[in-house]
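Annotators were shown the component list below and the corresponding predicted structure, then asked to write short factual statements about the assembly.
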Amino acid sequence: MVTERVLCSGNEAVGWAAIYAGCQNFFGYPITPQSEIAEFMARELPKRGGVYLQSAGEAEASYMLFGGGLTGERVMTATSSPGLALMQEAFSHIAMVDAPVVAVDVMRLGPGAGTGGQQGQTDYRVVTKGVFGGLNYFIIAPHSIEEVFEFVQFAFHIADKYRILAMVLTDFIIGRMSEFIELKSFDFGPLPEKDWALKGKAKKNNVSNCHFSGLVFGGIPAFFERQQDKFNKITEFETRHEVYRTEDADLLIASYGSLSRISRGAVNMARAQGLKVGLFRPITLRPFPKSSLLEEASKTKKVLVVEDSPGEFVDDVEAAVKGRVPVHLLDIKARHIAGPSGLIFPERILEEVRSLL
Amino acid sequence: MKEGIAEKQVCKRPTLRQPLPYWPLHHCPGCNHGIILRLIIEVLEETGHDGNAVCISGGGCSARFALYLDIDSATGIHGPNTAVASAVKRIHPDVLVFAVQGDGEIGAIGLGSFVSTAMRAEKITSISINNACFGTTGGQMAPTTPLGMITSTSPEGREAEGTGFPFHGPELIAPLPGVAYAARGSVHTPANFQRSKGLLKKAFQAQMEGLGFSAVEFISTCPSNWKLSPVECLKFVEETMIKEFPLGEFKNILKGNEAA
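Structure shown to annotators:
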């Protein structure tokens, strides 16, 4: 089979991935730096017989996601930080009814309106821990456009396999940078039947289904036990991470998403200077690859967390490392300029590495 | 069968009611929600949508309609039922999709969804229930609380100064081009029950003909929070509610009604 190779941005890759995953339904609302996803869907879905529905705000888009997910068809939304805040309520309801849905968060700097839509990783805490009601969802963070294309398709698979909200977490850098991808569908394995889907009971042997986002009739311990079992399974089978040049490393950099890409450059520069530095990159942020990080960190003398936020991701790293080795932090204050275009450059990471070794 | 009771069936059990003992009605004695539930079931049966309908309810006293109905349904998010229903309808355009809502869900927490769904000409039906207060939470002031009415959050009686005026959902959306049908009915007498069935049938017809958004509001009593007996409640509907919230059609673009 001949596959098509295209140069596209991370945001466009989200759209291509949805199409190649058989997702025909997008509910969303424009927000910088995510709007290209909505634009792509508005252009591509209707001509394929799909649904692009522009809501009256992000909260509404997430309510539509709740309804759409319960029809059993593949559905998705995409947003950026302030929009994500508005979706938190529906995400909790989605978790409660086990609706399989995919959401993409293209992070922009916060808090508040931030810089109006430029780079930042300041959603880490809210996406990994922010849902009321105590339930989890699956979060995966790509560091390349190729990974965006694969992980969005994987997110649909995870959503259907476990009946859960699967989120792909990118940011301004990943969303806006362009790389080549090969357009193809991934086969991640078999999926369960969706015999619970809402479509009118005449189509289901006259058996009706009711999805109730409430626990008013009891069964509370059993409900949470079932939810925990589900997430334990996801943790056991779906947790992913990547290590880079960690053999013999004295110092382990921990970072995710776009910043892990930058950190990779810093590792190469350090290695060229004979410094024994490696990189640990959590690919899934929820479940967090705790035990693998502990194992890798234990082989080194120090951990350096690099994140484009004011010390959010570092909490999870510290929790995983359990004080076995010291954990240092290089955060958003290490950007090269004070304005919205500021970035943490590999040179700055290298400087930090040198001071620690 | 107990001695002395004739074995004569005077009334058929609605087929789309989930069989007892599951989900016994939780409404207070004298409340009209149960009657409105029956009305919806009768209309679904009579229009042949028994197997081809999806109900989206939300929070409050009508939330559990989704559980009572033996049709596909979802419930639990309070307010944006019409947004949830919109997604279901877009994905299954051949299915009859309706939202069951309280007065807060069309006039307060769900106002944005209600109006934006109407603006999009979404081919779904909103069935809202106006009982002049927030019933489940204990009778607080709602957008539909008539002026002067005492509630737990308008202890001196609702005043226009500071709380504004009662909300009229069907009248508000009727002028929007995306709205095909907007009406209000009541079920406080058998005659009104029958008329209200007709309103809902037309709303469903407008949806299935693809004409646009349709909405029917039903007035309900609320004995517990109005602090009136069930009989006094019916009088209150007749004398106060219907005066503030007139019954009838505010928009109807079904064939033959273009001028209405």
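Statements collected:
1. DSSP finds twelve helices and 15 strands in chain A.
2. The mean pLDDT of chain A is 97.
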